[in-house]
Amino acid sequence: MKILQPPRRRLTILASALSVALAGSMALALPETPGDVAPAQAADASTFVPPSFSELVERVKPAVVNVSIKGTKQGKSGSLSRGFVMPEIPGGPPFGDMFRHFFEDLPGQLPGDGTKHEFRAAGSGFIVTSDGYVVTSDHVIEHADEIEVILHDGERYPAVVRGRDPKTDLALLKIEPASELPYVEFGDSDAAKVGEWVVAVGNPFGLGGTVTAGIISARGRDIRSGPYDDYLQVDAPINRGNSGGPLFDTRGRVIGINTAIYSPSGGNVGIGFAIPSSMAGDIVAQLRDSGHIERGWLGVQIQPVTAEVVESFGLDDRHGALVASVVPDSPAAQAGIQPGDVIRRMNNELLDDFRDLPRMVAAAEAGTQSVFEVWRRGETHELSLEIRSMTSEEDRHALRTADDTGKQPRLGIYLSELTPETRKRFGIADDVAGVLVQNVQPGSPAARAGIRTGSVIDMVDQDVVRSPDEVVARVRQAVSDKRSAVMLLVSHDGEQRFVAVRFATA
User: Fold this and answer.
1) What is the pTM of this model?
2) Is residue 139 flagged as an active site residue?
């Protein structure tokens, strides 16, 4: 299990290159399984009502397994975290500093001297076909040299990795059982509602076959673990070793895979996160069929449409995704999508949230034509392009999501033109164009907005600027239009993002 620990200092957001692809609405059913063995939850579709889940547990428990691994990794003085710094999410809980791997390390196996050592650990999983395909979390098996699956009846089988998808923290294992196995099926997480009962079965603290129950606390949680975050939040007790285990609805179908918890102490405090089956079902099916995941690629860096963006650009609402940059020669670039565009719809489907765009693009097959509705300078345009399949190189920087901090920025910068001397002084590449931020007034709202000395302003609102006078003119126009903020497209150290800066009130 991964753990989100609470912050002990003011948190900052570290920008990380992320791909455009995200798994969208996906088929839940796996390919047909061999043999005549029925799913473990049988055909009874009746809804179970508390206080007893005994019948449900009796049906599904035989399909839940323990995943035991042996491998090599650094001791605890070396970092085992993925390195994501966690922001506080507005309106939500203050998620912790680091997003860590969090499954059950067996004692005495991992000295803390920072060097590599052999270790043993345990997680959870569940059988999805009668011939021995097992789903678990990717972080459970990522350092494994040997993997063993332990069935409910104590039978042990060596497992091989059929496929992994670190971006969604899913992995598919294969064992060769002596006979057909009981298995469970994916349910429809999209139909699951906040407040509905759920049951988690797994291997917490090495105590196999442990059952806990609770409710769905929230949907669509973004815990900044990757580009595809869309977690179910549950209050069913989830602890070390539950990683990779199933989360069942009251019909005995898997609607989530337990993957992370928020905890100040390392134990359960009633905030757990599960990958929804709407995402996992298709990922698992692809891993079974081909051993890898193919995702569509657009080639843009996006940010959310914040209240400042709405005000500065004159939008009617916050639907869509703001384009901060476009990858050269990408499908987006070839179609004419530009920085400053707000992508509102894909194939006539409205983007309620900026994170919808990567998921929808990822779900599109390579080679398909898609139509994007783009808002630009007060006008709506329809741009058609062919979705491309993502390569490993594109995966690193195809889509980077940069969150606007919204911390009441105001102006307070000193500008100059880019010259060979200033490029050399600030390490600015020759292909970077715009206006140099020569200095930022200490403590100013611009500084609070994250604008730093040596940054380059490429656009003001949606207009390209190449001189300080152009920046000043457009800022004055924004003041004349009685707007309270202006959007600056700022690049620094190769990263580019829009920053909303509010005008000083005094």
Assistant:
1) 0.59
2) yes
